[in-house]
Specification:
The protein is built from nine helices and eight strands. It has 282 residues and is an alpha+beta fold.
Length: 282
Amino acid sequence: MTAITRKLLLGTLLAFSLSGYAQKKTTLSAEVYGYKQEMVYFDCLQSPFFNAEFHCNPGDEHLYSFETKSPVCMLINGQVNVLLLPGDSVHAVVRYDGKRPSEVVFSGSPKAVAANRMMSNIDGMKRQMRYKSQLLACVVVDVKPQQRIDDSRTLLSKVQEMVAKEKAPLSDVAAEYILATTEAAAYISFMEYPQMYAETRKTPITEQGIGDYWKTRKRLLPRRLHTLFPDSLKTCIRNWHLSIRVHNAMPCFTNYLLALCAMVRNWNAPNLSLPSIRPNTT
């Protein structure tokens, strides 16, 4: 093989290698209409290193590509949540009516589109239920602990039914992510809300109408959450917040949450091991 031939072959292999590398990029693009602010922002829930900002011109396509090894959720203007798996490409058309998005239409990678449509439907269901994402907001409007527990159980049941019925077009990771985030919200409500309500509203847990708190918590949480792990999910999440303050970095909480909830459900998830909570360097 001559030197020229070797160089041509190496050049061809390099081109194919770079082409495959480029295909691994994860891409979010968006068109925003009716938005009254000057800038459009993309922010990642899992990492402060994934973000972008654009001048808001109706009809412009705002495009952002990045590399990730794990699922991420990108927020458009802090209001529209887009789930992206490595290599996904998602385009969102967001229309505003006042300060809130009135319509979001997704296109792009079929499995990613299916996942984000489901997440959008779940958000709509939460609005209909008036199910608040922040527990402190529940305390402010005086949502009773028993009502929060009942609403969390109802939401979890509906999401589990939705995922089971419409799982075919979803990737396994997306289905697990959707279930895990809903389960985490429910479990945190079961564990945290009665105590938070007691501290803020000065109403002892024994007077909240939920019965014995510890028996109720043990009954509502999956048995494997008590037997598999030395720390409860509540402690894990507190450690996560602590690691952010100490290390000033976002840990791999998405992978941890997926693994934890998959194991709690006693799923056969060979690709999901329980990682330590550590800073994310990707």
